[in-house]
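To assess whether ligand presence alters the predicted conformation, the chain was also submitted together with nicotinamide-adenine-dinucleotide. Input:
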Amino acid sequence: MATIGFIGLGNMGAPMAANLAKAGHRVIGYDINANAVQALASAGVQPAHSAAEAARGADVVITMLPAGEHVRDVWLHQGGLIEAVKGGVPLLIDCSTIDVESARTVTEAARVAGFEMLDAPVSGGVGGATAATLTFMVGGAETAFARGLPVLQAMGKNIVHAGGPGAGQAAKICNNMMLAINMVGVSEGFLLARKLGLDWDRLFQIASTSSGQSWALSSYCPAPGPVPAAPSNRDYAAGFMAALMLKDVKLSQAAADAVGSPTPLGAHAMSFYQAVVDAGDGAKDFSVVFRWLAAQPRQ
Ligand code: NAD
């Protein structure tokens, strides 16, 4: 069993760290939010007072942070994690969803300092993180992937080696652009159904076993009612925050711009999540786009 430093104990990081401890690893956790650190003590995660303290002496160091700027800051700044782990040979893993460029910059800095690093963003939401059934899409060298696999298996079910450094992030932003568009599609379907006099439970029963089926529909149905565990039934408490979804669709749009790939629906979906965030619902689950859409006039 490994000693693991885990930095970023939010909606996703907290259950992931708890699952590592449950699997028998020694986990030392840190978050700038002291309450998040304390809340995990009962799950067997030892508290640290800084990211460096959590990482020092670990066999594996994992980050689960909001965005590229946090990841660059935590790994690269003076006294950051790459400096903190010098003297050992830990495997470094970033599970956050960030831009490909930041992932490659941090991985390169790690390589120069003599460390192997994986970008390993996840899919499956808080439910998947809690049940240890996440999908990990992993970028990095074969040797690093082989080292990381047993650790990732304690947190997920499908662990896919997507390619070299940055490939995990590339897969993730493509996946989330599809999800962003799907959620708007499901929302439009349920809103139209109501206007046509259809019952939402009946529509769910039909669409979830028909060709309209999707994760957005069956796991996070944005219309309240049909899926009891969905954020729509608890006033859209996250879940996966709309602000983070906006970040991800912006990443996919920037990537599409850079390589000249057509993503007109991605651009349209991005404008919806931007409107949700502008309306003050950035901290709600991204399925709140349903409620925003419901208030829009027909164009
Ligand atoms: P979150 O905001 O709940 O958690 C992030 C945590 O990082 C917070 O607890 C915050 O205090 C901490 N943090 C920020 N800066 C820090 C620093 N400098 N040092 C230490 N801790 C710091 O976000 P989340 O929902 O857990 O998402 C984390 C990442 O996973 C994001 O990149 C997100 O896009 C991705 N993701 C989220 C979901 C989801 O359903 N929530 C699903 C897949 C991927």
